[in-house]
């Protein structure tokens, strides 16, 4: 089974040397957590168990977890591990969604089906829900998601975009309910440090131990541990960032209206619009050296991340205003 694996952040497709592009094809916070100078040991020594424990403690506190998060090299690393947690069988993915889930499962021998209703996940040996969903922002309350757990073999909940809306997370229920739930969390998207490659898998003791075994002894780097500990403990920065992202998402919606686009959905980190002709809309933006994201399953949907600098907002404003001309 071949599943197309296309992603945002693919500027190499269009960029030529010396060209100045504004990349809005991802859902990464464009104003990242300010990284201070790191201690020499973060670079020069292998990560210690005490440093890793400090990172997991910071993540547990930030996420409201009653289980120990397993640090990994981004949520993508967790997606690659999930198919190895059980013998291959029937997997169902609530879609359309991030295509790496289906691709990773298929490569490990799972029979993968995409369904369009959460109820259709019942009966699967492994079920995947991305909450909130990428790219349309569809979301379900934690109680509804956890009600599904007794009706599937393994329930995987990808919460890569939940940080701006922590009330949607099922993490606070882990360790107190069904033991067949695995939650994936991204660090790099909300904190704007995707290149650091840090994320977490959260589950009950048995599944968490298996994930840690499959990840190996040094699943994350010393710099990732050092930065992650600082950023996850900085609640003031997180609160201010949630407020700013909400305001910026609303500003982006207003700009999209200049082009006559309508909102499909999204999260405070990205917005998806119905454009009528997504390829034409992408090409028009590309003429202004702005890169966006379109999808193989929709001729109309286009996704935009948030600009960071005021100059970038003005650049996008001019490009969108010109869409109707």
Could you explain how this protein is built, in words?
The chain contains eleven helices and 13 strands. By secondary structure, the protein is α/β, with parallel strands linked by helices. It folds into two domains: 11-31 and 236-324, Aspartate Aminotransferase, domain 1; 40-233, Type I PLP-dependent aspartate aminotransferase-like (Major domain) (Aspartate Aminotransferase, domain 2), CATH 3.40.640. The mean pLDDT is 95. Helices cover 35% and strands 17% of the residues. It has helices at residues 40-44, 49-63, 75-81, 100-107, 142-148, 188-191, 205-215, 222-233, 235-258, 278-287, 310-321, and strands at residues 22-23, 70-72, 90-94, 111-115, 126-130, 154-158, 181-186, 199-203, 262-267, 270-274, 290-291, 293-294, 301-305. It is globular, with a radius of gyration of 20 Å. It has a seven-stranded mixed sheet with strand order 2-8-7-6-5-3-4, sandwiched between helices. Strands 9-10-13-12 form a four-stranded antiparallel sheet. It has a two-stranded parallel ribbon with strand order 1-11. The N and C termini lie far apart (44 Å).
Mean pLDDT rating: 95
Tell me the count of domains. Answer: 2
Could you state the CATH homologous superfamily of the largest domain? Answer: Type I PLP-dependent aspartate aminotransferase-like (Major domain)
Approximate shape: globular
What assembly state would you assign to the polypeptide chains in this entry? single chain
Proportion of strand residues: 15-25%
* Stretches with pLDDT under 50, minimum 5 residues: none
Enzyme class: lyase
Catalytic activity: O-phospho-L-threonine + H(+) = (R)-1-aminopropan-2-yl phosphate + CO2
EC number: 4.1.1.81
Protein name: threonine-phosphate decarboxylase
